[in-house]
From TrEMBL:
Topology in the lipid bilayer: Multi-pass membrane protein
Keyword Transmembrane: yes
GO terms, molecular function: transmembrane transporter activity
Signal sequence region: none
A GO CC term attached to the entry: plasma membrane
Name used for this protein in its record: MFS transporter
Pfam families: MFS_1
Recorded name of the encoding gene: prf5
Subcellular location: Cell membrane
This protein's UniProt keywords: Membrane, Transmembrane, Transmembrane helix
Length: 404
């Protein structure tokens, strides 16, 4: 493993200066920002309209479940017909879903229809961008591109709640739903009208297996690993709220999550500044081990200052692991299934996050903070165990198994 920070800075700049890169990255980021707002914007708008928490939970669950089911299906359609022909209709229908909720937040049936529509037809901007990277940058710049992508993903979750807060401060809670619709349309329009998205054509294959990318055993195991990471993150998102109620934390739970996101952003940028000679599969396992150390130590429930350190530690290894994961998924996915493979990553990661948040809630209600924190470590352990079990299978076809 060698580093050349001076050269890496030039390479980062060269990646962003590549034709169309900033446009598709920005378009994807704006569209994803709208979806990152949903977890906060929808409950706040419904609560303001007088909904009880049972219905709010039902709507949030419907949105998450429909998104999880729809993502790989839409990804498979992209692999068959192209990006623009899918992005435009899904963007329009998802925006209509948010507007539907905004127009009738007190009508339960209408709200549920809008939530399912917005969730199931989430524009596949995230997988579409990752499919484009190999054609946008040089081969030796791919690691930097995936690092930038991972960093942008972290910024989505930083700015999403901030946009919702701005809407609350200036307008009514329902305005955040209108903002989501506008951001969705703006992101899709920016991305779908870019030349790379318009030029991208599905790979022609003689036989399409019904399992799509999941017919590759190594890829299937690799995609299961982020479920554990999602569980850890979902646990953390709820845990810090309870932690901030028991300890005096400057800035409360948002400050702890901001530290976590900042460290992830720093980790992604540092990852891209390294000229790697270690295989991607070994990198991923190493980063997963780092996550296990950080999340495992959460079970000690330390005082605020050490807790801030753990927020930095857990965040630091997350984005680099995802950046390495993006590249390996692209290499392992069978021909004509890359978009669906990335869509499965989105779905399974989100499923893990939802599972972690759902499971840890009742534990925190019983006041068992240490046990609740241990759930995060269990998720990280699951991730590392899955990666270890499938390690020998994480080798792209035609590539020799080299020692690190």
């Amino acid at each position: 493993m060698l580093t050349d920070v001076r050269e890496a800075r030039v390479t980062y700049w060269s990646v962003l200066r590549r034709q169309h890169v900033f446009r598709v990255l920005f378009g994807s980021w704006v569209g994803r920002l709208a979806m990152a707002m949903a977890a906060v914007a929808i409950p706040l708008a419904l609560r303001d309209a007088g909904a009880d928490y049972v219905f709010i939970g039902l709507v949030s669950g419907a949105f998450a479940l429909s998104s999880a089911i729809g993502s790989p299906v839409i990804g498979r359609i992209v692999d068959r017909v192209g990006q623009v022909r899918v992005l435009v209709p899904t963007g329009l229908l998802a925006a209509i879903g948010f507007v539907t909720i905004a127009l009738a937040p007190a009508n339960h049936a209408v709200v549920l229809i809008g939530a399912v529509l917005a969730g199931a037809l989430t524009p596949p901007l995230e997988p579409c961008l990752r499919v484009l990277w190999p054609g946008l940058v040089a081969e030796d710049e791919l690691e930097k591109a995936y690092a930038v992508d991972s960093a942008a993903q972290e910024l989505v979750f930083v700015f999403g709640p901030l946009v919702v807060s701005l809407c609350l401060a200036v307008f009514a809670p329902v305005s955040a739903l209108w903002a989501q619709a506008l951001l969705t349309l703006a992101g899709v329009a920016t991305f779908a009208t870019a030349a790379p998205a318009r030029r991208w054509a599905p790979e022609k294959t003689e036989h399409r297996h019904w399992l799509g990318p999941l017919r590759h055993r190594g890829l299937t195991i690799l995609l299961l690993a982020p479920v554990g990471t999602g569980v850890a993150i979902g646990t953390l998102n709820v845990l810090v709220v309870s932690y901030a109620e028991r300890f005096e934390v400057f800035g409360g739970a948002p400050m702890l999550l901001a530290l976590n996101a900042f460290a992830a952003l720093a980790g992604a940028l540092i990852y891209g500044m390294i000229r790697w000679t270690i295989q991607p599969r070994t990198r991923i396992v190493s980063f997963a081990a780092g996550l296990l150390v950080g999340y495992g130590m959460l079970a000690t429930v330390p005082t605020p200052l050490p807790m801030a350190g753990l927020m930095l530690l857990t965040g630091f290894f997350l984005a680099p692991m995802l950046a390495a994961l993006f590249g390996l998924i692209s290499d392992l996915a069978p021909r004509g299934t890359v978009t669906e493979a990335f869509a499965w990553l989105v779905t399974l990661f989100a499923a893990g996050t939802s599972l972690g948040a759902a499971v840890v809630g009742p534990v925190l209600d019983r006041g068992e903070l240490h046990l609740a924190a241990a759930h995060a470590g269990a998720g990280a352990l699951f991730c590392l165990a899955v990666l270890g079990a499938g390690y020998r299978l994480f080798v792209p076809a035609g590539q020799p198994v080299a020692a690190d």
